Amino acid sequence: MREITITTEFIKLQDLLKFAGLVETGGEAKERVQAGEALVNGEPCVQRGKKIRPGDKVSFAGEVMTVTYAN
Prior knowledge:
- The protein is of the alpha+beta class.
- The chain has helices spanning about 15-20, 25-35; strands spanning about 1-5, 10, 40, 45, 50, 55-60, 65-70.
- Helix 1 crosses helix 2 (about 25-35).
- The chain starts with a strand and ends with a strand.
């Protein structure tokens, strides 16, 4: 499982995918999320603006990620 560190309260799903390098553009993130390719906490999520907070688990393109706050 890969940990992504953020400095804000949350990160939007599409931004997480870009930040993690799993998509190249916001447009690609939008299309792939809306196609149901992302799972948040084990459930399909088609909301590209879904707020991902520490403790959430995101699965996408064979990667599993969690978010943690920077110290």
